[in-house]
Design a protein that fits this description.
Order of helices and strands: HHEEEHEHEHHHEHEEHEEEHEHHHHHH
Structural class: alpha/beta
Distance between the termini: 37 Å
Number of helices: 16
Helix content: 40-55%
Strand order of the largest sheet: 9-8-7-6-10-11-12
Bound molecules: nicotinamide-adenine-dinucleotide
Largest sheet: 7 strands, mixed
Length: 468
């Protein structure tokens, strides 16, 4: 596999799925190719007065819908192939979860640990300047977001720079997502990918026919789970899986893994790690020194949520999980994918399962354009209606509802409730769509997800009148 580039692997997946469609060759080529890549080099004045040249990219894979959308990563191994491949995946991911954006991705080739905060700010602002200068950013053009090595702080610098360089006071906040809530961010963005992972797996486990094939019952309550990575995605996925009734039997971090067949309480493990600096030696759990071995633990659901390419041709045959939920990007290599499918494993693909982040970013963009917090117009109205209904019902049956229950039963939806509910709807509906295709075509979920994406992008190009 090593001889095939990341973009080559994505394109290979595309070709496999495209073979199940009947779109004309020219249209398929237009969907597959990357529309534009802007490679830039700009000077950074370092704190010691020296000048360093910084290399960076922004790639917009598809303009079939605007704006394009995708994160910006700061990493010293970023390269053009990776940025283009990730932009391509963003196009498919957005289409799969019905987020009306094209795909994009940005990268700055730096190891942020080697730079002061002031230098990171100057790099981020200069990168934004370059994007503005070449029309590669804007609420209706291209909307970046955080990715590896970036977070709300960088997004705040981006929106501030964009606002100061453009005459766009009304919509400027929508030029980037993943902002702090005080700067127009949306509540629920932090946990969105982990929560979306939970909603996606829960949906997959709700089909009796599919669970029968795996020898499992429907629902999460009888399921054992192993999660690799306790960062943003892994921690939230593990937490929501536990709250949803599953038993977390294994957790892995880079320092090692822990296992307890009777269950691990995620919050207690996090507290233990904070106190001791490691997940190892958690009371009642068995230590596993080699973290990667955690992937081979007996469990029903394995959630790799740390790195790419952790399940390979080498270890795939030893995976015991019946369901693999790809929370990380690209955790299963192409040859491992084939082995797992041969073993009858249900793989819930990354291009669907970790789309919670971009889905909630879409909600943030909508909030910025409408200039109103979700729930502001309806919360009190809903609450008053609920109160009337509950009071009428209580009077009709002659019961007194305790005040605390009354408040819970009648509350109107706030921003966080609406974001979570929108995410739940998105993940459930999208899973149904790809499952239907998988059944109709007789293929795995990853291929079905790609077919779904190709069909949707094809419809957009046809609507634009570009293809008959
Ligand atoms: P993160 O940096 O917050 O977490 C990654 C965690 O994995 C860290 O805690 C790290 O210590 C741990 N880790 C590193 N090496 C490990 C190893 N060998 N074994 C076990 N654990 C290890 O990153 P994240 O935002 O949670 O992203 C995780 C994955 O999810 C990445 O593949 C990312 O591309 C993908 N993803 C993230 C988002 C998002 O919204 N954050 C959205 C889509 C996809």
């Amino acid at each position: 596999m090593s001889s095939i580039s990341f973009l080559g692997q994505v394109d290979r997946m595309f070709e496999k799925a495209a073979a199940h469609t009947d779109h004309p060759e020219g249209l398929l080529k237009q969907i597959r190719i990357c529309n534009s890549v802007y490679q830039m080099e700009f000077p950074l004045k370092r704190d010691d007065g020296s000048i360093e040249v910084i290399k960076a990219w922004r790639s917009e894979h598809s303009h079939h819908k605007l704006p394009t959308k995708g994160g910006i990563r700061f990493a010293d191994n970023v390269n053009e192939d990776e940025v283009a491949a990730l932009a391509t995946l963003m196009t498919y991911k957005c289409a799969i979860v019905n987020v009306p954006f094209g795909g994009a991705k940005g990268g700055i080739k730096i190891n942020r640990k080697n730079y002061s905060e002031g230098e990171i700010e100057r790099i981020t602002r200069r990168y934004t300047y370059e994007l503005v200068a070449k029309n590669f950013i804007g609420p209706g053009i291209d909307v970046p977001a955080p990715d590896y090595g970036t977070g709300p702080k960088e997004m705040a610098w981006i929106v501030d720079t964009y606002r100061s360089l453009t005459n766009d006071p009304l919509t400027a906040a929508a030029c980037v997502t993943g902002k702090p809530v005080t700067l127009g961010g949306v509540r629920g963005r932090t946990e969105a990918t982990g929560l979306g992972t939970y909603f996606g797996i829960r949906e997959a486990c709700s089909y009796k026919e599919d669970m029968d094939k795996l020898g499992l019952k429907t629902g999460l309550s009888d399921k054992t789970v192993v999660v690799q990575g306790l960062g943003n995605v892994g921690y939230h996925a593990a937490k929501f899986m536990q709250e949803g009734g599953a038993t977390i039997v294994g957790l892995a971090e880079y320092e090692g893994a822990i296992y307890n067949k009777d269950g691990l309480d995620v919050e207690s493990v996090m507290a233990h790690r904070k106190a001791t600096g490691s997940i190892l030696n958690f009371p009642g759990a068995t230590n596993i020194k080699n973290s990667a071995e955690a992937l081979e633990l007996p469990c029903d659901i394995l959630i790799p949520a740390a790195l790419e390419s952790v399940i390979t041709g080498e270890n795939a045959g030893r995976i015991k999980a019946k369901i693999v939920g790809e929370a990380a990007n690209g955790p299963v290599t192409a040859d491992a994918d084939a082995t797992l499918l041969d073993q009858g494993v249900l793989i819930i693909p990354d291009v669907f399962l970790n789309a919670g982040g971009v889905t909630v970013s879409y909600f943030e963009w909508l909030k910025n354009l409408s200039h109103v917090r979700f729930g502001r117009m309806s919360k009190r109205f809903e609450q008053a209606s609920n109160e009337r209904i509950v009071r009428a019902m209580a009077d009709a049956v002659g019961i007194d509802i305790p005040a605390e229950d009354f408040i819970k039963a009648t509350a109107g939806a706030d921003e966080i409730d609406l974001v979570k509910s929108g995410l739940e709807e998105t993940m459930a509906t999208s899973y149904m769509e790809i499952r239907d295709i998988a059944q109709r075509v007789g293929t795995d979920l990853r291929t079905a997800a790609f077919i779904n994406a190709i069909d949707k992008v094809a419809v957009s190009y046809k609507e634009l009148g570009i293809f008959p």
